[in-house]
Amino acid sequence: MMKGISRFYSRSEIRKKILSFYLIMTLMVMIISGCSNIKNKEKDTIRIGVSVYDAHDTFITQLMDDFNSYADTNVTVITYNAGQSMKEQNNQMQEMIDGGCDVICINLVDRTEPEHIIDLALKYDVPVIFFNRELTGEDLRRSDKFYYVGSDAMESGIMQGELAAEGILDDSLHIDANGDGYIQYVMLQGEAGHQDAIVRSEYCVETLMNSGIKLDRKGLAIANFNRTQAQSKIEQLINAKTEIELILANNDDMALGAIDAYINIFGDKAKSMLPAIYGIDGTIGGLEAVKTGYMCGTVYNDKEGQAHAMYDLAIALATGGSLDDLGIEDEHYIRLPHTKVTLENVNDYLY
Questions:
Q1: Which sequence spans correspond to the domains of the chain?
Q2: Which of 101, 131, 132, 274 could covalently link to 96 via disulfide, CB atoms 3.0 to 4.6 Å apart?
Q3: For the Periplasmic binding protein domain, which residue ranges apply (predicted)?
Q4: Exposure of 305 in the CB half-sphere (CA atoms within 13 A)
């Protein structure tokens, strides 16, 4: 009967086995450490999802250009165009959540229908920054992770009214061309029922009347903040022989559309035929029109400031950083001020 064979190791062999064991353990630690570093790197990457109501809106496009310019190398911004469809924007909200966005920025298609977006944000505990199109305070306060970044629509309306009043009272501009003591005007308004459009229009007219200006409204045209639609509306009024001494537009795109209408109808004589035209937003096109004299003035809506504030807030929310120095008011709002722009100071905003 064979006995079991036993093996005795020499000291040198034992040392080799111990060394091999330590090498294997060191390698395992390195692998685990490497995996840990990969995970940390993934956590350091911030994903910001953005849905805009319409990518063809000039102001929104320029605001997003500024927003993207602030993004660091470890920040990924994914932008969606809702194309003026609330249903599409609701779907995009789900996509951004499914895509692992740390923060979501929403430029609402319809400020009166944010329920689905809010419900999703609450369900998945995702911070949301609403911007440019303000939802109701009641909706915004449904979570301490909801914020609004934008401006004060009332302020912009008042400033536009002040600009127009200053122009009317300046005899050199001869805005009251027929000398009847009344200013025949047209209001180019944004979307029907849109809060900012209504507020801008009402406070602009109220400011003019409080300045002692007598007004004679010749038209209230809904042009949906759109340049082409504004051109069509003003062309209709011109062709109907409507007397127009002043055009007040809720945004620069519509003001530029009014200019397009005169150019299309009067050609080279258009500039001499133009009424006084005032816009709001201070887009590049609007500022250039002020500089060349086609527009009398615009109200600068600080898109750079809003973009920067929105970006800083998004990063703070994504990283758990401090919100103390971001200028938040009433726990949910960041508002940037407007400024009046005329020929005298337009270069300060263009260059």
A1: 46-151+303-336, 154-301
A2: 101
A3: 48-320
A4: 16
